[in-house]
Amino acid sequence: MSEEQRSLTELVESTEGVVTPGPVIDVADLACIVEAALLASTAPLDMVHLRRLFDDTVAADEILQALGHLQERWQNRGCELLELADGWRFRTHAKIQPHLDRLNPEKPPRYSRAVMETLAIIAYRQPVTRGDIEDIRGVTVATQVIRTLEERGWIDTVGNRETPGRPALYATTRQFLDDLGLRSLTELPPLETMQGALEGMPGVE
């Protein structure tokens, strides 16, 4: 092997496994890109999608730092940046929403007390069957109540109980957590204050 070939071989071996760093992105530019993506998105964006903005060349902790800066920047404004079950998103402050509702003549669907009581039982006792809900409420649960919650995306069937008839088991969804502004079920408020939280959800009468 010639000296030139030996040098080339040593160079290749010395660079094996070395990842060429991507272009350096200024912190301010990074925050602006993340901000624009969140404002343009109609759904929460998780870390996988946020890193995809940069072809995975930006570390998660750098993006988290940018998200922290954005949260500070949006304090005391009409919107706030929240981390929800499905990721990060901007949301209108609750105190601002009544003013915005005046711009939209269409009223959101109204949900009965029976629907919201059923939702509360599922949230705190999940997974539960329809029979469990009826035992707690003391009345029959109409099929329409379950269907309404499923169509709203707040509950879903997660399995079947291994008892005669194998009744369906219901649990809340990530959409339910997102609509409440929560990241996980561990953040559910105490049961005695849950009613007020549910009444603040869109469409509750």
TrEMBL record:
Database matches in SUPFAM superfamilies: Winged helix' DNA-binding domain
Pfam families, per database record: SMC_ScpB
InterPro entries: ScpB_csome_segregation, WH-like_DNA-bd_sf, WH_DNA-bd_sf
GO biological process: chromosome separation
PANTHER family documented for this protein: SEGREGATION AND CONDENSATION PROTEIN B (PTHR34298:SF2)
Name of the protein in question: Uncharacterized protein
High-level lineage: Bacteria, Pseudomonadati, Pseudomonadota, Betaproteobacteria, Rhodocyclales
